[in-house]
Fold this sequence. Notes:
Elements: H1 5-17, H2 24-44, H3 72-88, H4 95-114, H5 131-137, H6 139-162
Amino acid sequence: MRCGPLCRFLWLWPYLSYIEAVPIRKVQDDTKTLIKTIVTRINDISHTQSVSSKQRVTGLDFIPGLLPVLSLSKMDQTLAIYQQILTSLPSRNVIQISNDLENLRDLLHLLASSKSCPLPQARALETLESLGGVLEASLYSTEVVALSRLQGSLQDMLRQLDLSPGC
């Protein structure tokens, strides 16, 4: 007697039934922990304390400021902008933070999929096309302002995650 695909599936069924999905609460807790870790990494970079996240700096308007209410898609879009800015900086201080942002975005995508929210892939942002000129003119200022505003945005995201944000 030949055992076809159905027979093999039935043989694997007991093993497959023990596989459980990651609880969404765990994903949300991991997201909050990663946000706190990134904020700590930013705090460890001493020169980021010198600029307020609300301060306006001429020429650096493309760096997002604080947003009042953040949905999961706005969080992802904001993190994509910061990630693009940080990867453009030659500073070694921001490499791990940029990698953490990538992981944070993945966690946000998991949260969004658990709520059946379609998160569009972050597109290349037109506002950052002129980033090269700004970096040449004010590398240090760009890093300080970006990290300061990122820290404020992350703290807002942490508060929003407690409120269970929408799509």
